[in-house]
Design goal:
Layout (H helix, E strand, L loop, with lengths): L1 H29 L15 H8 L4 E4 L4 H18 L4 E2 L8 E5 L5 H4 L13 E8 L2 E7 L3 H16 L8 E4 L5 E5 L29 H13 L3 E3 L12 H14 L5 E5 L4 H4 L11 H17 L5 E4 L16 H12 L5 E5 L11 H9 L10 E6 L23 E6 L15 H9 L11 H4 L2 E5 L12 H15 L5 H12 L4 H22 L30 H5 L5 E2 L16 H8 L9 H4 L2 E2 L10 H24 L7 H33 L14 H6 L19
Parallel strand pairs: 1-2, 1-3, 3-5, 7-8, 7-14, 8-9, 9-10, 10-11, 11-12, 12-13, 13-14
Antiparallel strand pairs: 4-5, 4-6, 15-16
Helix pairs in contact: 3-5, 9-10, 12-15, 14-15, 15-16, 16-20, 20-21
This protein binds 4-O-methyl-beta-D-glucopyranuronic acid.
Length: 726
């Protein structure tokens, strides 16, 4: 009897153990912390399995060189994940369904196909269904190895998004040469305007320890075609140019090289003084010029494929050539001359506005840079933010686009959401960037859109050490959209969103459609609850966390909200027409005319260009005041609807990611409400108008909203001001 019960106990424990471990397996199979990004490679549904197996039975491709090895290993990893088993490898197709990848130089099989790869250029690729030795095969071919890798990711994306792949003929080449992520990472591990934890670069353990994450970062970039990364903050430390840090950067460059990713560094203009022992950084001083030349030589000795420098000069307290009475061209050209012999470039930012200048801040970059057109060395690129102020939820396009026809321009966008709710607000930025790319400058007649003017795109990265890279899963979509648009600025943001959703979550249309719709409306929701009808820069001082339309005083007028809203008892808005700052005059005449006239200014930019009385009647007949209140409230309602949508989708998503998104949407709703209420409370204190019928008054007094203080809001390293509420 005793033995019997012992046996039973044993069996009982066995069952418990088996149950526990099978649950653990099930859980870990489901566990999704977002680390895999859009490169998840989860098994395809049974219906697709057979179909895809027929085109992925064998890998035929050279393994010479690190880039082709990376291509092969990505194919093996992805196909074993998607299809359950990695295909066999061979030197030639021996059956139907081979994937043949390489260049005409690396692969005799490809050479024998005599493909016309002209249109692929240096980085593009061809993915085509062909017949080789009477076997059906898919060829992924390019002129250079990097094109092969990009083509591999393209092919995998087709599988990941469940596209048919039996009859392919896809040629793709990047439209823009420079596709660069700008990290605002500091050497102390903090990230300026970063909301995804500490810096992804662990300077302390570099160059000895190469975290696997560095390779995964490069894979993610290559999957989109991103070909450059500026490792350091534009508010630069000269130390990053010392041998110690150059060696650390070189270790990253060694990891990135196989993925076609070049590293760049921000260059502090005063570095010759700070680390070079010189008395001046005057760009016309021969010793300074010699110092930069020697520095460039030193860098290229350590990092032969170094991309170049990104420079923020004479802007927000950064040193620059104007400290010596020299121009931006003098400064940029000096650096270009040092880099050019090695093939490097200077990305010189036009984000400048001066403390002394009483002129409208929106006009200052144009005033300084337009006259310099044609005066830059041909290795200088001028990097412009999308709009003339600073990455606001909505801005008109920057007037310098089109105004510097003899200078290559790079469009800089901000992927990190400094002004769009940090990491917790769901705001898909694809539509915002599409709006800029679509903007018609009319500088060479109709159709001179921004996308036709630029030579590159730079995105201020939202990447940090967080397990999910970006601080939230939906913020990954912004990294994704940036990369896709930089490759092809003609892409539509809804199509990009759909791809991302399919790769990141699920291909089930019952999930894909509502989520894409939610993403597509999300940026406009932020505009509504933060800065409707063309308002801008209404965020709290310094941290930019939460509303602060009352912010005034302090070191400079153009760091206050009242400078931008110009609200008083009579009305609201910034008059940038001829009767005001005349910023409109910096646009081509037809654009200037459109923005000058009330009737033709788009309603969503109304208060950017015009100062209007509170009771001004919009074409709809509704007053400006009522319309503002409606927009603020609509923003909150949209977020509430997004929450509801998400709540209905739990069964399509693993619990981890579902829960985080749900919790963040709840935060977003609270903060949208806060934005609405605080903004209405402030503007109502000036307009003295009642709320339109049916709209709830703010639950707290204006004093309450003004008193809120967040000294440790993220993203603002070094500025932990106890006076943050003022
Ligand atoms: O948006 C502003 C940010 C600063 C940033 C600056 C810039 C790197 O508030 O944090 O500094 O723009 O783009 O240089």
């Amino acid at each position: 009897m005793r033995t019997h019960s012992k046996q039973r106990l044993f069996v009982y424990w066995l069952i418990v153990l088996a149950l526990l471990s099978s649950q653990a397996i099930a859980r870990s199979a489901q566990a999704e912390d977002g680390y895999d990004l859009w490169l998840r490679y989860r098994p395809v549904e049974a219906a697709w399995l057979h179909r895809y197996q027929n085109v992925a039975s064998e890998l035929v491709g050279g393994a010479d060189g690190s880039t082709l090895l990376a291509a092969r290993s990505e194919l093996a990893r992805a196909l074993s994940g998607l299809l359950g088993a990695a295909p066999r490898s061979g030197p030639r197709p021996t059956r139907d369904g081979a994937i043949v990848f390489g260049t005409p130089t690396s692969s005799t099989v490809i050479a024998a196909l005599h493909l016309d790869l002209h249109a692929a250029g240096r980085e593009g690729y061809l993915v085509r269904s062909v017949t080789i030795d009477r076997h059906r095969a898919t060829v992924i071919a390019a002129n250079e190895d990097i094109g092969v890798l990009y083509g591999v990711y393209r092919f995998l994306r087709l599988l990941q998004t469940r596209e048919p792949v039996e009859h392919l003929d896809v040629m793709s080449a990047p439209q823009l040469q420079y596709r660069v992520l700008d990290h605002w990472d500091n050497l102390d591990g903090t990230v300026e305007r970063g909301y995804a934890g500490a810096s992804i670069w662990d300077w302390q353990t570099l160059p000895d320890y190469l975290a696997p994450r560095y390779t995964d970062y490069a894979r993610a970039c290559a999957s989109l075609g991103i070909n450059g990364a500026v490792l350091t903050n534009v508010n630069a430390s000269a130390l990053s140019l010392t041998p110690r840090y150059l060696n650390k950067a070189a270790a990253l460059a060694n990891v990135f090289r196989a993925y076609g990713l070049h590293i760049y560094l921000s260059a502090r203009f005063s570095a010759p003084i700070e680390i070079g022992g010189l008395k001046t950084a005057d760009p016309l001083d021969p010793a300074v010029r010699a110092w930069w030349r020697a520095k460039a030589d030193e860098i290229y000795h350590i990092i032969p494929d170094f991309g170049g420098f990104l420079v923020k000069a004479n802007s927000e307290g950064q040193p620059g050539p104007q400290d010596y009475g020299r121009s931006h061209a003098d400064g940029a050209n000096m650096l270009a001359e040092a880099l050019a012999p090695h093939g490097g470039i200077v990305m010189w930012r036009a984000f400048v506005y001066s403390q002394e200048q009483p002129a409208d801040r929106a006009t200052q970059a144009y005033t300084e840079f337009a006259p310099l057109d044609g005066k830059f060395h041909d290795h200088v690129f001028i990097q412009l933010k999308n709009g003339p102020i600073d990455f606001q939820p909505r801005e008109p396009f920057h007037p310098l686009f089109g105004a510097m026809p003899h200078t290559p321009l790079i469009l800089e966008v901000q992927i990190t959401k400094e002004y769009l709710g940090f990491a917790t607000h769901l705001a898909y930025l694809g539509p915002m960037w599409e709006e800029t790319l679509d903007a018609d400058t009319y500088t060479r007649g109709p159709g001179t859109t921004v996308r036709k003017i630029i030579s590159g795109m730079a995105g201020v990265a939202n990447i940090g050490a967080d397990r999910n890279w970006c601080g939230s899963v939906f913020d990954q979509a912004n990294w994704y959209a940036f990369g896709r648009l930089a490759w092809d600025p003609d892409l539509k943001s809804d199509a990009i969103a759909e791809q991302w959703v399919r790769m990141t979550f699920s291909n089930d249309p019952a999930f894909v459609h509502p989520v894409v719709a939610m993403m597509m409306g999300s940026r406009e929701a932020v505009v509504d609850y933060m800065t409707p009808l063309g308002l801008h820069h209404q965020m709290a001082r310094d941290s930019h966390y939460g509303p602060g339309p009352w912010v005034s005083g302090g070191p400079r007028a153009d760091w206050t909200s009242v400078y931008y809203n110009r609200a008083d008892a009579q009305g609201i808005g910034f008059d940038r027409t001829a009767s005001g700052s005349n910023a409109v005059a910096q646009y081509a005449p037809s654009v200037a005319a459109r923005f000058s006239s009330l009737g033709s200014t788009p309603e969503n930019l109304l208060l950017w260009f015009h100062h209007l009385p509170w009771d001004y009647r919009l074409p709809s007949g509704v007053t400006l005041w009522d319309e503002l209140v409606r927009h603020y409230s609509r923003g909150v309602d949209t977020v509430a609807a997004m929450r509801k949508t998400w709540a209905g989708l739990a069964s399509y998503v693993d619990a981890e990611r579902y829960t985080q998104v749900a919790a963040f949407l709840a935060i977003q709703q609270q903060e949208a409400q806060w934005w609405r209420d605080a903004s209405i409370a402030y503007f109502q204190s000036l307009s003295h108008l009642p709320l339109p019928k049916g709209y709830a008054p703010p639950p707290y007094s204006l004093q309450y909203y003004e008193s809120l203080c967040f000294p440790y809001a993220p993203g603002n390293p070094g500025v932990h001001s106890p006076t943050c509420g003022q």
